[in-house]
Specification:
This protein has about 210 residues and is mainly α. The chain is built from six helices and no strands. The longest helix is centred in the first third of the chain and has 28 residues, at about 5-30. It is globular and about 55 Å long.
Length: about 210
């Protein structure tokens, strides 16, 4: 299989945006229990805005491999049976959660409302994880493509997205939040190592296929 370049941009950009948001939320969550330094609202707003831009660019790239872009909205009508329809529904919900999260931190509304922000972040994180599953299952459910028809497809998509997201978070921390660099850098290394193991497992499995 040789996927269209727009599909590669779609999955890479959106997956990285999801991973970046999860990295941001984990730092905020763990900061409240004292496991990491508490991120500043301005840093969280910057990171969420970057994740929103990545997700938006990925969504934009998806229109380049549609035969009839004006009918794209119809893809959401088969959500009962189609993983693509579920992805189309979850993606804008995730982007909406990103926008509200970034706006709340940028406007100062988050000050003095830690539990509300943690709840909002939890909603965004759940949507990000659901989006990983939906996107991965688009390929994993194709039984006639044995190389993709495996739970490893979903797992690897999740791990690679997290690795990308934590690396982006580490880059942002190096610029705006040095105290979080160890947390994000360590997370990037762990996620990358896990993604490497998952990818090797997938290659070994595919080598045994007939």
């Amino acid at each position: 299989m040789q996927p269209a370049l727009s599909v590669l941009f779609l999955t890479t950009l959106i997956g990285a945006g999801q991973g970046l948001f999860i990295a941001l939320y984990l730092a905020e969550l763990w900061g409240h229990v004292g496991w990491t330094p508490q991120p500043q609202p301005s840093f969280l707003a910057l990171g969420a805005a970057a994740a929103l831009v990545l997700t938006g660019l990925g969504l934009l790239s998806s229109f380049f491999h549609l035969g009839r872009p004006e009918r794209a909205w119809r893809s959401a009508t088969r959500w009962r049976t189609s993983w693509l329809s579920r992805e189309v529904i979850v993606l804008p919900l995730f982007m909406a959660a990103l926008f509200v999260y970034a706006l709340a931190h940028a406007s100062g509304w988050s000050a003095g409302r830690p539990f509300a922000m943690l709840a909002l972040g939890a909603v965004g994180a759940v949507l990000a994880l659901a989006l990983y599953v939906c996107t991965g299952m688009i390929y994993a459910c194709l039984r006639f493509l044995q190389e993709w028809a495996s739970p490893l497809t979903v797992i690897n998509y999740l791990l690679l997205g997290l690795a990308s997201g934590f690396m982006l978070a580490a880059a942002l921390a190096a610029l705006a939040a040095p105290a979080l660099l160890l947390f994000y850098g360590g997370g990037a290394l762990l996620a990358t190592a896990a993604a490497f193991v998952g990818r090797v497992a997938s290659l070994l499995r595919n080598a045994r296929l007939k």
